[in-house]
Specification:
Blueprint (H helix, E strand, L loop, with lengths): L6 E2 L1 H8 L3 H10 L7 E3 L2 E5 H7 L20 H8 L17 H15 L4 H12 L1 H12 L3 H10 L15 H16 L3 H10 L10 H11 L6 E4 L6 H10 L8 E5 L3 H13 L5 E3 L10 E6 L24 H10 L1 E12 L1 H4 L3 H12 L3 E6 L7 E7 L9 E6 L13 H15 L13 E5 H6 L19 H41 L5 E4 H4 E5 L10 E4 L4 E2 L1 E3 L5 E3 L13 E4 L15 E3 L8 E2 L3 E6 L5 H9 L1 H8 L12 H6 L1 E4 L2 H37 L6
Parallel strand pairs: 4-5, 4-7, 5-6, 7-8, 9-11, 15-21, 17-20
Antiparallel strand pairs: 1-3, 2-3, 8-10, 9-10, 11-12, 13-23, 14-22, 15-18, 16-17, 19-20, 19-22
Length: 712
């Protein structure tokens, strides 16, 4: 390398490489060939030439590259520049020129011939990285046209779809497509970049996140080696890849990564994307996956058209349709261990919507001191914001919230989230964290901290533009109105697509319900004969313990609506079980004229052991009664009318356990109950989406007037 003799401390090496000192310590522990230091004046000093040679070939993770570094740069390149020596130039070019397109070109014929999705070519790339010997045998068989041998090796490797028509020969068209894909994968020079290209091609946009945006979320929470990191909606795994890359310079493979995938295909894609890079994660695609597990760090870009996993309602209350992302904010907070951090990318309406329910949720979050930072990001048709949360834990709660307006206060012309935007946002967040107790002034037109009292005066709006003073050259107000119109149109397009999918699902569920109930007998029995009816206590002492279900916590066919009181756990008749149906004893108990859902909810598996509170009734279905069906019946017009005849007199309607037990329930066979409940669940989901469409259309109507009549 031609370096002149030079001695460096471990701290000096870390500074040159832009890594923490702990990274150098980890390299020394894990690599026996790391240069040995010599001692001088009580200090350990390393030979710069030896360190430079050792760093050769150790690539800088994509998420840790500097703006002046191309992908493929090594720590040796960075070290040489730091000590004043020229480093080899790494050209920044397209993905594997001349070779990556080969696998991309074969992906679509493979799908047409065999029905195999993108997870199959990704699986090939993962196999090539993870099992070189097995890959060599597969390539040799493919080059020889040995279809049966190729088939057997793919089945042994458990590639998705490889066992289609097990026991027989692959059809000629499928075999040709598979062999071509294997050879194309073998020709790809950089599997990780080819995988990115596969996921970024047209038709695969839904789960794709640009690297700068992933890096922004990850660096705002700064995961450390040994911490558990979770993505509750991991999509194709880009955020988990960014987390692993963030940790790699200090401790490769450190930290436990996990993610919840929407389905098995998404899980395989995510596993392949990580495996191609030599990484792994605990991925789960069924049920609620990670109930009751807590994590040090949560990162997410959730699909706000879908409810968070688990089925339980948000702990601080249901947001409005326009503020649906607030349910995911609460879900992330619920999954954090004490003192944990979370970063979520959600629509801007979560920070600014003025529906009463949204304001109440934001107020609860701010007053709990869990909102650390809100960042508005640039984008032509997006009003996305990043919420940075910190769960209560050791140490005092910060009395202020940091607001960063990268959408309106960024560099001139900055309309996308690029590395420059990310660097500035992350730098500002770190600068505020390192202020040492002093008040943070921020940067004019870009950032500012605001106390809770000011946020309260602002009706708990958390949009950064409301706190960050804009410079004189800020965009004209009309631009913002037009951007809001674009964002609403994009949101409506996504909602309509979700409605169409839900309608198809509802039609199938309705047809199944009709088929299951056609010609079957329906019993009509008093509720007291098929369920145990019990009332909650008159009073209950509060204190540490388990959640208490009160009337305010029941609605929409489920429990866990709003904040909970706590009481000491008890094993008596007031302890709830999964599958219990609960309701309020007073007020509007059935379906009103407006069609609103009555106050009956089913206790979920994670609520087993919670306590029935004052003012509530508990119905414990017996054998042959499906809890979901019973709740839907009680919420139906028939159930509401039957109960209304049994209510006690007085200004406030009131139901006794005796009256509830006398309510006549229409009860088909168990299988029919299950299909009817599924059909009604689908209808409720569809109704929720339509309400969100209505809210968005109403806001678009207001903007349609405001934009053309604006003075400027």
């Amino acid at each position: 390398m031609g370096l002149q003799p030079k001695l460096l401390t471990a701290g000096g090496i870390a500074e040159l490489l832009s890594v923490r000192a702990s990274a150098i310590s980890n390299w020394r522990k894990r690599h026996r060939d790391f240069p040995r230091p010599r001692e001088a004046a009580g200090q350990e000093l390393f030979d710069a030439a030896e360190v430079g040679r050792w760093l050769a070939g150790r690539r800088v993770p994509r998420t840790a590259l500097r703006r002046d570094e191309a992908e493929g740069a090594t720590y040796q390149h960075r070290f040489l520049r730091g000590v004043g020596r020229p480093a080899p130039v790494v050209e920044r070019g397209p993905v594997a020129p001349g070779r990556a397109p080969a696998l991309l070109a074969h992906a679509e014929p493979l799908r047409v011939a065999s029905g195999l999705g993108v997870d199959f070519p990704l699986g090939l790339l993962r196999l090539r990285v993870a099992d070189p010997a097995g890959w060599g045998a597969l390539v040799a068989a493919a080059r020889g046209g040995a279809g049966a041998r190729v088939r057997g090796l793919l089945v042994d490797a458990r590639l998705p779809g490889a066992d289609v028509e097990a026991g027989g020969a692959l059809p000629a068209a499928v075999l040709a497509a598979v062999l071509a894909a294997v050879l194309a994968a073998d020709a790809a020079e950089e599997p990780a970049r080819v995988a990115d290209a596969l996921l970024s091609r047209p038709g695969r946009d839904a789960g794709h996140r640009t690297p700068p945006l992933a890096r922004c979320l990850v660096e705002l929470v700064d995961p450390r080696p040994g911490e558990t990191v979770h993505d509750p909606c991991c999509g194709d795994g880009r955020l988990l890849v960014a987390v692993a890359g963030h940790l790699a310079p200090e401790s490769p493979g450190a930290g436990a990564l996990s993610g919840r995938a929407a389905d098995e295909v998404s899980s395989r894609v995510c596993a392949a994307l990580l495996g191609i890079r030599g990484m792994s994660a605990d991925l789960r695609a069924h049920g609620d996956g990670f109930r009751c597990e807590l994590f040090d760090v949560v990162v997410a870009h959730p699909p706000v058209t879908l409810a968070p996993p688990g089925g339980e309602g948000p702990p601080l209350g249901e947001p409005s349709a326009r503020g649906a992302g607030l349910a995911w904010v609460q879900h992330a907070l619920r999954e954090l261990a004490p003192g944990g951090r979370a970063a979520l990318l959600v629509p801007g309406s979560t920070a600014s919507g003025q529906a009463g329910r949204d304001v109440a949720v934001r107020r609860a979050l701010v007053e709990a001191g869990v909102v650390e930072c809100v960042v508005a990001l640039p984008g032509r048709s997006s009003r996305a914001v990043v919420w940075v949360l910190r769960a209560p834990g050791a140490g005092p709660v910060d009395p202020e919230v940091l607001f960063v307006d990268a959408a309106g206060g960024g560099e001139p012309g900055g309309r996308v989230v690029d590395d420059a935007v990310v660097d500035r946002v992350v730098g500002e967040h770190r600068r505020r964290a390192e202020r040492g107790g002093r008040r943070f002034a921020g940067q004019e037109g870009f950032s500012r901290s605001a106390a809770r009292a000011e946020i309260a005066r602002n009706d708990f709006r958390l949009a950064p533009a409301g706190y960050v003073a804009r410079p004189a050259a800020a965009s004209a107000p009309l631009e913002h109105l037009l951007a809001e119109v674009d964002a609403l149109r994009a949101e409506l397009s996504g909602l309509r697509g979700a409605v169409a999918a839900r309608e198809a699902e509802g039609e199938r569920a309705f047809a199944a319900a009709l088929a299951a109930t056609g010609g079957v007998p329906r019993a009509e029995v008093p509720l007291g004969r098929i369920a145990e009816v019990a009332a909650g206590p008159g009073t209950m002492a509060r204190g540490d313990g388990v959640p208490v279900v009160l009337p305010r916590n029941i609605g929409g066919g489920r429990v866990d609506r709003g904040a909970h009181d706590l009481a000491p756990a008890r094993g008596d008749r007031y302890a709830l079980r999964a599958g219990d149906v609960v309701c309020a004893r007073t007020g509007t108990l059935g379906r009103g004229r407006s069609g609103g859902t009555g106050r009956y909810g089913v206790v979920g598996a994670d609520q087993d052991g919670w306590l029935l509170g004052p003012g509530c009734l508990r119905l414990r279905p017996g054998t042959g009664v499906v809890p979901g069906y019973l709740a839907h019946f009680l919420n139906s017009p028939e159930g509401a009318a039957g109960l209304e005849r049994l209510l006690s007199g007085g200004a406030v309607p009131h139901v006794t356990t005796r009256a509830m037990g006398e309510l006549v329930v229409r009860l088909p066979p168990t299988a029919a109950q299950t299909t009817i409940a599924a059909a009604l669940d689908a209808a409720d989901a569809r109704l929720a989406l339509h309400r969100r469409v209505e809210d968005a259309e109403r806001e678009l109507r207001e903007l349609t007037f405001a934009a053309p009549t604006h003075a400027r």
